[in-house]
Amino acid sequence: MTALSARSPAFLPTLVLTLGMAATVGAALGFEHIGGYIPCALCLMQREPYYYGIGVGVATLAAIGFGAPRWLVRLLLAILVIMMLVGAGMGVYHAGVEWGFWEGPSSCATGAQGVSSNVNDLLGDLDSKHGPSCTQAALRVLGLSFAGWNVIASLILAAIGVRALRKA
Prior knowledge:
Radius of gyration: 19 Å
Shape: elongated
Order of helices and strands: HHHHH
Number of strands: 0
Strand content: under 5%
Low-confidence stretches: none
Number of helices: 5
Largest sheet: none
């Protein structure tokens, strides 16, 4: 097997995949910290493939750039595709819980991050912060909750990963 380089056709789709994962989880963090939507336990779990995937994506880019063996690059890309498919599966599960298709976890509690402990700010926080619930979507955009949009993002990113895998 031959080594790949930064001029490899797999480099650009891998870069797009890695940046796409960062943008997706960055948007989720933006909704949390700027929009005031406190994530539920399932929302937080759906972020994990992205957190780990960004690191694997950077490692894959480095492997391509430094001319690692093709089998290693393909293995890393396959791991990324699997991570995104797992993320999509988590999103389907969470969306199903929101739509009442099946029961969610018995506890959906998370730490109430972002809620002030200062009594003077508490009333303001009650107006701006939205509490977590695994069974009710905090926001729907074009009919889809955050979980539904995660499914779409994960599947698109998985497809980009498959494209990179084919080019590697």
